[in-house]
Amino acid sequence: MNRPTRVAVLEKQSARAIDTVRRSLKRRHAAERRFRLYGRLAIAMAIIFLAALFLDIVHKGYSAFEQTFVGLDVYFDPDIIDPHGTRNPEVLAAADYTALIKSSLRELFPEVRSRGEKRRLYAIVSSGASFRLGKMVLNNPAVIGNTVRVWVPADDEIDMLVKGHVDRESAESERRLSNQQIAWVDRLTRQGRIEKRFNTTFFTAGDSRDPELAGISGAVAGSFFMLLVTLVLSFPIGVATAVYLEEFAPTNKWTDLIEVNINNLAAVPSIVFGLLGLAVFINFFGLPRSAPLVGGLVLTLMT
After folding, report:
1. What rounded mean pLDDT belongs to the chain?
2. In degrees rounded to 5, what are phi and psi of residue 83?
3. What end-to-end distance do the CA atoms of the chain give, in Å?
4. N or C: which end of the chain has fewer CB within 10 A?
5. pTM (2 decimals)?
6. Nearest alpha-carbon partner for 227 in 169, 298, 175
């Protein structure tokens, strides 16, 4: 094969190789565009699902920022609150304010006679209503002997009814409120004694067995102090340990063992650290339960 022929063959082979590379580049570029498109679609779908979840939570939970109150005309009977007229704060705080609330409800519904009906009637108002009356008297003892319109929190079942979360058309046996209680609430509503107000209790109160009296104040404060303890303890210890291991510690079996254990601790479930905190800090050292100090120490061990 003469030289011109070899050159022509090489040129053809080179042209075929270039065409092959170009086709390969086109496929790679197309695959890269598809990969980017799939990534963007995945991110968009994740954002859509997250937004849908957030909207669903808001839609179902926004009513928690409102609380139902019942307006009662309470007669602050001095014979019950302060029979001796001493105005002693200890005596005022120990008075039976629940009796005042029950008396106000009986005046609103004088037809209620039987013990069972009275029990259902009293259940309209929250068990924490008496504390509100006690605070009023302690802050202003001048109300003793007077009749005052007091807005007290309703029971959580009444709150759900007013907010429309109770099916009135369902059978009485399928809900926790009786038809009689619903009729009483409707009567109070017509009298203007039912109101929905901003739920300040949700932000100012702590834990409670009664849903209408529960709040997040204790949880927020506990979380804040727990993270503060964790920051104060784990930040200097963690930074000092990292600097020492990377810059000053000699390479030997002990430092290798420490690094392996640090890496292994990252895979330990948090419940194990919780049990460790219970066994060591609470049972052995006797630290108080539900204290931010204990939680901060446990999180320090985790980090």
Report:
1. 86
2. -60, -25
3. 75
4. N
5. 0.72
6. 298
